[in-house]
Amino acid sequence: MAAPSRERQGVIKSPRRRSFSRSKLVEALSAYLFLLPAAVILFAFQYLPAIDVFRLSLTDRLLLRPFSNFIGFDNYVRLWNDDRFWNSVWNTFYFVAGSVPLQIALALLLAMALASKIRALGFFRTTFFLPVVTSMVAVSVVWDWLYHPRIGLFNEIIKLFGGDPVAWLSSSQWAMPAIILLVVWKGTGYYMVIYLAGLMDIPHQYYEAAKIDGASGWAMFRRITWPLLAPTTYLILILQVINSFQVFSSVYVMTGGGPLRSTEVVVYYLYQRAFESLEFGYASAISVVMFLFLILLTVVQRVFIGSRVNYDR
Amino acid sequence: MRKIIALLAAALMTTALAQVEIEVWHSLSENYGAPQFQEYAEEFNAMQDDIRINVSYAGEYTEALRKSQASVAAGRAPSLVMFEQTRGAGFVDAGAVTPLTSFIENDPDFDFDDLFEPLLGACQIDDELWCLPYNPSTPLIYYNKDLFREVGLDPEEDFPTTWDELLEVGPKFAVEGSNGELERWGFGLAHAPGWLFDAWLGQAGGRYLAEDRSEFVFNDENAVEMLEFWLELVEAKAAVPSGSQTPDFFGGNQAMMAGSTATLASNFERADFDIGAAPMWCGEECYVPFGGANMYIMSAASEEEQQAAYEYLKWLTSTEKAAEFAAATGYMAPRQSSLETETLQNRFEELPEALITYEQMESHGYPRTLVPFWGEVHNQLTLITERVLLNGDDPQAALDDGVEEANRLLQIYAQ
Questions:
Q1: What is this structure's pTM?
Q2: ipTM beyond 0.90?
């Protein structure tokens, strides 16, 4: 019984397999065909320039001059000894450490408040999301006024509570917190929406069961909400860290990296080198280092945090 | 009938073929000449059939610079571009712009000697003329005449014309608030002084570059003296370091503010007090730098396009057109003959302060420092100012660091 059937299977299977693989091939081909336009655009405008940046980083290219010399890893050696670069690295870490946890906490808090059934829910959701869709440049110009040392709103509020006015953007101590505050205000709404989606995905039964068992609100958050939101938090963390390390426009509009280079972050420094002193080769080296660092960071996050995230529900 | 149509079509085609179309980029904003600049192009297009001008706003000076840098790198530059005073040198260095010398030499109609000589200094590098001044400016001192009267000063007689007088007059405006901070003061020292650094440095008798342009020297005793004078002004409560002077000046908290002559009309309109404008004071020397912009022809343009760009530039800077633009804005007309036109004569009658900038420019106006990497030197000047005014650093040390970076770049570009 077994032998003929095996043989029959073999006989029937082999042409079938061929036709199956042919249709699969057609399917794959059409898939590739659909992917092609996007791939070509991505390759031409993202990957090719990125690869070229690496080549440029090995040259002494000045932006406007059409010629350059190969200088090996000189730019990287110079970078290692460049105090201004390390200062910008420090400022960037300061910014990331200040803005990322604050945004995650606020986004989660807002999302949880807005996931409950309150009045005018749509209005609040829109309000908190609004800063996200406004232009960073426009927002920065407005906040420039809010931070004005003499007539700005923030100092008025501080004075109202009897505090001493702060020089904000013209103080090397307060300029970075001022930028963090702005970015948190502007960006939180985006992550709030992601958290909202995550919260909607948590099945009600868990909470109902917990309530029957007499769990407190905090316990429900600790044992249900937070662990089940872990994939969302992980996604937000990665997005935020990558975004935050690349902070630029708020610095560009509000402080120009000052005062005393207290807000000169890596991307701003890179920009200064590329477009002010026009040292394009050197600027390319900075961006390569930045790129490698972000990849490394993402891998580290994946290994140390991603492995603990539970996707099962 | 058919014949006529064919002939018409042929005629149309030849004009279309013969017509040269060129792109012109400018950085004038809505209140500073953009509508006029656009109108002139339309007027020129209607006037003749050979050249068609397409004007686009390339963003403010820095943004326009980035766009031009990118367009040069991509090999698709426009034909005629407006560069801010300090920004053309990088394009000259890269060979991205073409000298105007031969265009002018081959054109018997072009009255070269009529152009203001000091302004041409901003366009002369290595014995070639690289641009024509279009909308140059100088800094003026705007002041609140009401505040002068309030503290018992005559707004005309007692206006400070020297550093010493500023040190004397300035403190009279100082009013301290309950927390010890000044609520009203005489003058504001910008955190990012830009071209005003040029003014003060020049007034102290200092210069950025050595005469042979071999090195930067703005750490010599003149520069130190200048920064020490700033500190003296602050110490005497004659001036405060300030990041944003406009609201303070118009709010009546600051008596005097340095600003471009280009803002003359808008400042006079905006002030709800009796506002005045005066020449900038002198130190050991009288010195004002040029602001505003010049027009360059890009070398990526074809020969035909370059010639067309030149024709248009010539028309734009002609006596009457230049006078019109100067009268509509606060910028200076680059031609001496423009000052005699009815257009500008009327303007001076209406607003005599519009003449100040010409007097300054002719007697002691100087071009900016023409190096390809000025943007970074500018950064250094801001840092020096912040270190000295905000951080209490030693002026000499701050200047030395700035000069070191400037000289490093000078060497790179000398290769």
A1: 0.87
A2: no
